[in-house]
Design a protein that fits this description.
With 537 residues, this protein is of the alpha/beta class. The chain is built from 14 helices and 18 strands. The strands form 3 sheets. It has a 9-stranded mixed beta sheet with strand order 2-1-3-4-9-8-7-5-6, sandwiched between helices. A 5-stranded parallel beta sheet has the order 12-11-10-13-14, sandwiched between helices. A hairpin with a 2-residue loop joins strand 15 and strand 16. Helix 5 crosses helix 6 and helix 13 packs antiparallel against helix 14. The radius of gyration is 26 Å and the shape is globular.
Length: 537
């Protein structure tokens, strides 16, 4: 099933707000804030043709953009949005795009605004536009980030908010529910920003705030059953992480024994991973599980490869090949038992994976191929089913709790599909994997002992492709370097490095150097995302 069909199916289950992305670094935050208000929303490129949209939104939000509205090649929206008859909110560049389409004028601001500003709300605006600022006291602090500004509002628009440098910081149509704001309500620096968005999606668009994981479970189970049919079977990719486990439990609840989980041992998993996954999924959760040991195949194909994108492609393609082979075996057994043929491949794709693949210019410039949305074989026989595709990580964890999955598993840190292969910088060999694997095991063990694991969103040890001089036992050493990474994040779209206590770092470093043969130096990564990514490769 095409991703757009999945989007439409879920969007048609709820009152849905459409967010059109003009390339802003904050677009994903708009999505987060709307979801937090209990309203379902979808983020699509601003070039989305309304005639091709497979659901009717209850409202539309236009995001900001790094572009100037007057730039050659600047992105523009399909004018048909103004004929849908639904409320529209333009944020920053989105405000200027509304003005461009409806006859207003924009220009380069004499004084640009970046950072905090005091927004004065217009007390004379006593028509419908006051719904946008309902329960918000004037003045309120907001976050600005713009070089262009509205020079002249379109006809029939009134001012409902201003700052000392932006006369038209907030405007609204006199009769239609069309609004434009120059500030960014989606960032936490805008004190009342979340309330502004809630006022728009609930108060103005009239959306029912019923987007919860409790409501999602029953609707998604029914969607899966309808999609797979009464006899079809699904083969599922599991790794022991929260995403694949929640997806597997959801699938088992939907179709029972017609779901078959497969754990592919790719040779680059965490220490004792296969044994732990078998105990959790098969023994504790009662899921049909097959373990396919393909470690030699994966490591053989990775031999001599150093480019991280090639690693991801090799692992992604080999992963699907192994799945195809296993599906043939399971398919025969399924048919013999009177069950349907294996037609579907379960994947634990999350919404941040989807967002990072969105671009109004077409396919995004490659930062990395996500193991769930990139690197797949073009002639893959199985159809994809992705029950978590519309969810953020915190929503997946909330869903897992409702599915009675143990909290230790729910809060387990993410582990990439390519595994330790992208945490071994340079060529991946069995010996290099073992060094990274054992260092990582010690690292995670120590932060758990220190009571820090739940405070950290993701932590791991990476093996760098460099050697350093050291002294051990009165002898000169020339060995490898481990880099420790730990980040804090809510949605994995942005992240800050975790301020690890020095005493904990001392214990971790001491253990790794003493217990992992071949390492004589340990570093701690203090880079945020952006500009860095969470993984090294």
């Amino acid at each position: 099933m095409a991703p757009t069909d999945v989007t439409a199916q879920v969007a048609n289950m709820y009152d849905t707000v459409l967010i059109l992305d003009f390339g802003s670094q904050y677009s994903h935050l708009i999505t987060r804030r709307v979801r937090e208000a209990g309203v379902y929303c979808e983020l699509l490129p601003c070039t989305q043709k309304i005639a091709e949209l497979k659901f009717k939104p209850k409202g539309i939000i236009l995001s900001g953009s790094p572009f100037s509205i007057t730039d050659d090649g600047a992105p523009h929206v399909d004018p048909e949005i103004f004929n849908l008859g639904v409320p529209i909110l333009g944020i920053c560049y989105g405000l200027q795009e509304i003005a461009r389409n409806l006859g207003g004028e924009t220009s380069l601001a004499v004084k640009r605004e970046y950072g905090f500003a005091e927004l004065n709300l217009d007390p004379q605006a006593d028509h419908h536009s006051h719904k946008l600022f309902q329960d918000i006291l004037s003045p309120t602090n907001v976050w600005m980030s713009h070089g262009d500004h509205l020079e002249k509002p379109p006809k029939d628009f009134v001012v409902i908010g201003s700052t000392t440098t932006s006369e038209y910081a907030a405007v609204a149509h006199t009769t239609l529910p069309i609004y434009g704001i120059q500030f960014h309500p989606e960032v936490t620096h805008s004190i009342d920003g979340a309330l502004v968005l809630r006022n728009f999606v609930v108060g103005i668009c009239g959306c029912e705030a019923n987007w919860t994981m409790s409501s999602f479970i029953d609707k998604e189970l029914e969607r899966i059953r309808t999609l797979v049919g009464p006899t079809g079977s699904v083969i599922g990719a599991v790794s022991g992480g929260v995403d694949s486990t929640v997806a597997a439990v959801l699938m088992k609840r939907a179709i029972g024994d017609r779901f078959h989980a497969v754990l592919v041992d790719n040779g680059v998993m965490r220490l004792n991973e296969c044994e732990q996954v078998k105990k959790t999924l098969a023994d504790n959760l009662g899921i049909n599980l097959t373990v396919a040991d393909a470690s030699d195949l994966f490591l053989g194909r990775l031999k001599g490869v150093t480019d991280p994108e090639k690693k991801r492609k090799i692992i992604g393609n080999t992963f699907i090949e192994v799945f195809e082979a296993e599906s043939h075996k399971i398919d025969e057994i399924s048919r013999q038992n009177g069950q349907g043929a294996i037609e579907w491949l379960l994947q634990g794709t999350l919404y941040p994976d989807v967002i990072e693949s969105i671009s109004f210019k077409g396919p995004s410039a490659t930062i990395k191929s996500h193991h769930n949305v990139g690197g797949l074989l073009e002639d893959m026989r199985l159809k994809l089913i992705e029950p978590l595709r519309e969810l953020f990580k915190d929503e997946v964890r909330a869903l897992g709790a409702l599915l009675d999955i143990h909290e230790d598993l729910i809060w387990r840190h993410p582990f990439p599909g390519p595994g330790i292969a992208i945490r071994v910088l340079g060529e991946v060999t069995p010996s290099q994997v073992e060094i990274a694997r054992r260092a990582d095991h010690i690292y995670i063990d120590e932060i758990k002992k220190a009571g820090l694991y739940r405070q950290i969103s993701q932590a791991y040890a990476a093996l760098l492709p460099v050697r350093s001089v050291g002294v051990m036992g009165d002898q000169r050493t020339y060995e490898q370097v481990i880099a420790l990474r730990a980040v804090e994040t809510k949605d994995f779209m942005t992240a800050d490095w975790f301020p690890m206590p020095v005493e904990v770092l001392k214990r971790i470093s001491n253990r790794i150097i003493n217990e992992v043969h071949g390492v004589n130096r340990v570093l701690y990564d203090v880079s945020s995302k952006p500009p860095s990514t969470i993984e090294f490769e």
